[in-house]
Fold:
Amino acid sequence: MSNYGEIQQELLIIRLADGDNAAFDELYHLYSKPVYLRLRFLVKDADVADELLQELFMRVWTYRANLDPQKSFRAYLFTIAQNLVYNYFRKLASDQALIRNLILNQVDYYLSGDELLEIKEAGQLLQKAIDQLSPQRRQVFQLCKLEGKSYEETGKIMGISIATVNSHMTQSLQSIRSYLLKHQDIALLLISFTGLSSLLD
Structure:
Protein backbone atom coordinates (compact mmCIF):
# COMPACT_ATOMS: atom_id res chain seq x y z
CA MET A 1 0.00 0.00 0.00
CA SER A 2 1.32 3.48 -0.88
CA ASN A 3 1.99 6.10 1.77
CA TYR A 4 -1.07 7.95 0.52
CA GLY A 5 -3.15 4.79 0.84
CA GLU A 6 -1.85 4.14 4.34
CA ILE A 7 -2.72 7.67 5.42
CA GLN A 8 -6.19 7.38 3.92
CA GLN A 9 -6.76 4.09 5.75
CA GLU A 10 -5.56 5.54 9.05
CA LEU A 11 -8.05 8.37 8.65
CA LEU A 12 -10.83 5.89 7.92
CA ILE A 13 -9.98 3.90 11.04
CA ILE A 14 -9.90 7.06 13.16
CA ARG A 15 -13.32 7.99 11.81
CA LEU A 16 -14.59 4.46 12.41
CA ALA A 17 -13.32 4.55 16.00
CA ASP A 18 -15.41 7.70 16.44
CA GLY A 19 -18.53 5.89 15.18
CA ASP A 20 -18.57 7.13 11.58
CA ASN A 21 -20.91 4.85 9.60
CA ALA A 22 -19.57 6.03 6.26
CA ALA A 23 -16.03 5.05 7.25
CA PHE A 24 -17.30 1.62 8.32
CA ASP A 25 -19.05 1.17 4.97
CA GLU A 26 -15.92 2.13 3.06
CA LEU A 27 -13.72 -0.28 5.02
CA TYR A 28 -16.31 -3.01 4.55
CA HIS A 29 -16.26 -2.36 0.81
CA LEU A 30 -12.44 -2.55 0.77
CA TYR A 31 -12.02 -5.73 2.80
CA SER A 32 -15.19 -7.80 2.80
CA LYS A 33 -14.47 -9.65 -0.46
CA PRO A 34 -10.97 -10.98 0.38
CA VAL A 35 -12.07 -11.90 3.90
CA TYR A 36 -15.18 -13.67 2.57
CA LEU A 37 -13.17 -15.63 0.00
CA ARG A 38 -10.77 -16.81 2.69
CA LEU A 39 -13.61 -17.78 5.01
CA ARG A 40 -15.37 -19.68 2.23
CA PHE A 41 -12.16 -21.48 1.30
CA LEU A 42 -11.69 -22.61 4.87
CA VAL A 43 -15.23 -23.62 5.83
CA LYS A 44 -16.24 -24.89 2.36
CA ASP A 45 -19.75 -23.45 2.72
CA ALA A 46 -20.92 -20.16 1.20
CA ASP A 47 -23.73 -19.61 3.71
CA VAL A 48 -21.48 -20.26 6.70
CA ALA A 49 -18.80 -17.99 5.25
CA ASP A 50 -21.35 -15.23 4.81
CA GLU A 51 -22.58 -15.62 8.41
CA LEU A 52 -19.02 -15.51 9.72
CA LEU A 53 -18.27 -12.43 7.62
CA GLN A 54 -21.25 -10.58 9.06
CA GLU A 55 -20.26 -11.62 12.58
CA LEU A 56 -16.72 -10.43 11.93
CA PHE A 57 -17.79 -6.94 10.89
CA MET A 58 -20.29 -6.77 13.74
CA ARG A 59 -17.35 -7.31 16.07
CA VAL A 60 -15.36 -4.63 14.26
CA TRP A 61 -18.21 -2.17 14.83
CA THR A 62 -18.79 -3.24 18.44
CA TYR A 63 -15.12 -2.83 19.37
CA ARG A 64 -14.37 0.08 17.04
CA ALA A 65 -13.22 2.30 19.92
CA ASN A 66 -10.31 -0.09 20.55
CA LEU A 67 -8.90 0.16 17.02
CA ASP A 68 -5.32 1.36 16.62
CA PRO A 69 -4.95 3.31 13.35
CA GLN A 70 -1.19 2.67 13.42
CA LYS A 71 -1.65 -1.09 13.14
CA SER A 72 -2.62 -3.13 10.09
CA PHE A 73 -6.39 -3.22 9.76
CA ARG A 74 -6.06 -6.10 7.32
CA ALA A 75 -4.14 -8.18 9.86
CA TYR A 76 -6.72 -7.26 12.49
CA LEU A 77 -9.55 -8.54 10.28
CA PHE A 78 -7.82 -11.82 9.48
CA THR A 79 -7.04 -12.39 13.14
CA ILE A 80 -10.75 -12.14 13.90
CA ALA A 81 -11.51 -14.38 10.93
CA GLN A 82 -9.02 -16.94 12.23
CA ASN A 83 -10.73 -17.01 15.62
CA LEU A 84 -14.20 -17.27 14.11
CA VAL A 85 -13.22 -20.19 11.88
CA TYR A 86 -11.59 -22.03 14.75
CA ASN A 87 -14.67 -21.51 16.92
CA TYR A 88 -16.84 -22.77 14.07
CA PHE A 89 -14.83 -25.98 13.81
CA ARG A 90 -14.84 -26.38 17.56
CA LYS A 91 -18.64 -26.28 17.54
CA LEU A 92 -18.68 -28.95 14.87
CA ALA A 93 -16.49 -31.21 16.98
CA SER A 94 -19.57 -32.91 18.43
CA ASP A 95 -20.36 -34.26 14.97
CA GLN A 96 -17.70 -36.96 14.78
CA ALA A 97 -18.65 -38.15 11.30
CA LEU A 98 -18.32 -34.64 9.90
CA ILE A 99 -14.98 -34.05 11.59
CA ARG A 100 -13.63 -37.38 10.38
CA ASN A 101 -14.64 -36.53 6.83
CA LEU A 102 -13.10 -33.07 7.12
CA ILE A 103 -9.75 -34.41 8.30
CA LEU A 104 -9.58 -37.33 5.88
CA ASN A 105 -10.56 -35.32 2.82
CA GLN A 106 -8.55 -32.15 3.43
CA VAL A 107 -5.40 -33.13 5.26
CA ASP A 108 -3.46 -33.82 2.03
CA TYR A 109 -3.82 -30.20 0.98
CA TYR A 110 -2.78 -28.79 4.33
CA LEU A 111 0.41 -30.82 4.67
CA SER A 112 2.51 -27.90 3.50
CA GLY A 113 5.76 -27.63 5.41
CA ASP A 114 6.35 -23.91 4.95
CA GLU A 115 2.93 -22.92 6.22
CA LEU A 116 2.87 -25.43 9.05
CA LEU A 117 6.11 -24.07 10.42
CA GLU A 118 4.20 -20.85 11.16
CA ILE A 119 1.65 -22.69 13.29
CA LYS A 120 3.42 -24.09 16.32
CA GLU A 121 0.75 -26.52 17.53
CA ALA A 122 -0.03 -27.88 14.08
CA GLY A 123 3.66 -28.20 13.25
CA GLN A 124 4.31 -30.16 16.44
CA LEU A 125 1.39 -32.47 15.74
CA LEU A 126 2.53 -33.14 12.19
CA GLN A 127 6.09 -33.79 13.34
CA LYS A 128 4.88 -36.38 15.86
CA ALA A 129 2.86 -38.07 13.12
CA ILE A 130 5.88 -38.11 10.80
CA ASP A 131 8.11 -39.47 13.55
CA GLN A 132 5.91 -42.57 13.70
CA LEU A 133 6.78 -43.49 10.14
CA SER A 134 9.50 -45.97 9.28
CA PRO A 135 12.86 -44.36 8.36
CA GLN A 136 12.41 -44.91 4.64
CA ARG A 137 8.80 -43.67 4.57
CA ARG A 138 9.81 -40.68 6.67
CA GLN A 139 12.50 -39.78 4.14
CA VAL A 140 10.12 -40.20 1.22
CA PHE A 141 7.55 -38.00 2.94
CA GLN A 142 10.17 -35.37 3.77
CA LEU A 143 11.40 -35.21 0.18
CA CYS A 144 8.03 -35.30 -1.56
CA LYS A 145 5.70 -33.42 0.73
CA LEU A 146 7.88 -31.06 2.74
CA GLU A 147 10.61 -30.33 0.18
CA GLY A 148 8.34 -30.48 -2.85
CA LYS A 149 10.36 -32.94 -4.90
CA SER A 150 8.68 -35.07 -7.53
CA TYR A 151 8.31 -38.83 -7.15
CA GLU A 152 10.90 -39.23 -9.88
CA GLU A 153 13.40 -36.97 -8.13
CA THR A 154 12.80 -38.71 -4.82
CA GLY A 155 13.27 -42.11 -6.43
CA LYS A 156 16.62 -41.09 -7.89
CA ILE A 157 17.84 -39.63 -4.58
CA MET A 158 16.86 -42.75 -2.65
CA GLY A 159 17.64 -45.30 -5.35
CA ILE A 160 14.08 -46.69 -5.47
CA SER A 161 11.41 -46.89 -8.16
CA ILE A 162 8.64 -44.33 -8.65
CA ALA A 163 6.14 -47.07 -7.79
CA THR A 164 7.89 -47.64 -4.46
CA VAL A 165 7.87 -43.89 -3.76
CA ASN A 166 4.16 -43.79 -4.50
CA SER A 167 3.53 -46.78 -2.21
CA HIS A 168 5.48 -45.15 0.63
CA MET A 169 3.59 -41.88 0.21
CA THR A 170 0.23 -43.64 0.20
CA GLN A 171 1.06 -45.53 3.38
CA SER A 172 2.54 -42.43 5.01
CA LEU A 173 -0.55 -40.33 4.37
CA GLN A 174 -2.80 -43.07 5.71
CA SER A 175 -0.70 -43.25 8.86
CA ILE A 176 -0.72 -39.46 9.31
CA ARG A 177 -4.49 -39.28 8.78
CA SER A 178 -5.00 -41.93 11.44
CA TYR A 179 -2.78 -40.00 13.84
CA LEU A 180 -4.68 -36.76 13.22
CA LEU A 181 -8.00 -38.49 13.83
CA LYS A 182 -6.73 -39.36 17.30
CA HIS A 183 -5.86 -35.71 17.96
CA GLN A 184 -8.85 -33.94 16.49
CA ASP A 185 -8.64 -30.65 18.36
CA ILE A 186 -5.20 -29.77 17.01
CA ALA A 187 -6.00 -31.27 13.62
CA LEU A 188 -8.88 -28.80 13.39
CA LEU A 189 -6.47 -26.05 14.34
CA LEU A 190 -4.28 -27.14 11.46
CA ILE A 191 -7.18 -27.18 8.99
CA SER A 192 -8.74 -23.91 10.09
CA PHE A 193 -5.56 -21.85 10.54
CA THR A 194 -3.33 -22.97 7.69
CA GLY A 195 -3.32 -20.45 4.86
CA LEU A 196 -4.42 -17.51 7.01
CA SER A 197 -0.94 -16.61 8.20
CA SER A 198 0.26 -15.72 4.73
CA LEU A 199 -2.49 -13.12 4.49
CA LEU A 200 -1.41 -11.33 7.67
CA ASP A 201 1.79 -9.91 6.20
